What we know:
Beta-Lactamase; six-stranded antiparallel sheet; about 35% helix
Amino acid sequence: xxxxxxxxxxxxxxxxxxxxxxxxxxxxxxxxxxxxxxxxxxxxxxxxxxxxxxxxxxxxxxxxxxxxxxxxxxxxxxxxxxxxxxxxxxxxxxxxxxxxxxxxxxxxxxxxxxxxxxxxxxxxxxxxxxxxxxxxxxxxxxxxxxxxxxxxxxxxxxxxxxxxxx
Length: 166
């Protein structure tokens, strides 16, 4: 699980993407995407900090969860937090399945099992729901498996740039 916001010595809030654990996770997100899809999620040859900042500010959604029996969200860039209407602390305590309404959870589980077997799925579409109950349809999502530096499964991630409110 990734950490909540940390306070620096001068009491200002450290940006989520500046935290070492978050930068480590972003490296896993980017490397797994590159390995499975053969292309970059973001174009950045800079430092870990630059990659983390760029991903957080990207104009598309990036979310992920871990490998718990009921996976909990552990990363969302700013667009994801805005779309699901949550702050970081709330988002990273939310079961991944809760991003879909109960009526859509079975279809979501079938797709997630397919990702687990195939490594990734492209062009996924489905209905999701924000914390306030606002429904939206995602289109052309890419969902992929995450592996750590030792090649062990450590979660799944998704990205999409297309959605519309219902």
